[in-house]
Design a protein that fits this description.
The protein is an alpha+beta fold. It has helices spanning about 1-10, 15-30, 55-70, 75-100; strands at about 30-35, 45-50. The chain has a domain at about 30-100. The protein is about 65% helix and about 15% strand.
Length: about 100
């Protein structure tokens, strides 16, 4: 019984899944434009439709920049973006859980 009570004390409150759904929707609705400099050949990403949250906007550009560096073929690029989106959401969920545990 004491072990069960101790285990309960270590339980972390679940992350509000509704908040994750909202973040996912905002990620999906954010649009970025990839372009390459003619002179330096450096790729850049500019957000053309913001989520209103710089963390999400930056994540969209980071995922797109990572994926375009891996492939130029659209199906593979879209698969990479989907995987990057999921990684971002997983990391967001963990960060929220850690914030909740500290408060």
């Amino acid at each position: 019984m004491a072990a069960a009570l101790l285990a309960q004390g270590d339980a972390v409150a679940p992350v509000d899944e509704a908040a994750i759904v909202v973040v996912a929707r905002r990620f999906d609705e954010t649009h970025g434009k990839l372009s390459r400099s003619l002179f330096s050949k450096k790729m850049t990403c500019t957000v053309s439709q913001s989520s209103g949250d710089t963390v999400i906007d930056d994540a969209v550009c980071n995922v797109a920049m990572t994926c375009i560096g891996k492939t130029k073929k659209r199906p593979a690029f879209l698969d990479c973006v989907a995987a990057g989106r999921q990684t971002f959401l997983d990391n967001y969920r963990l960060a929220e859980r850690d914030d909740d545990a500290q408060n």
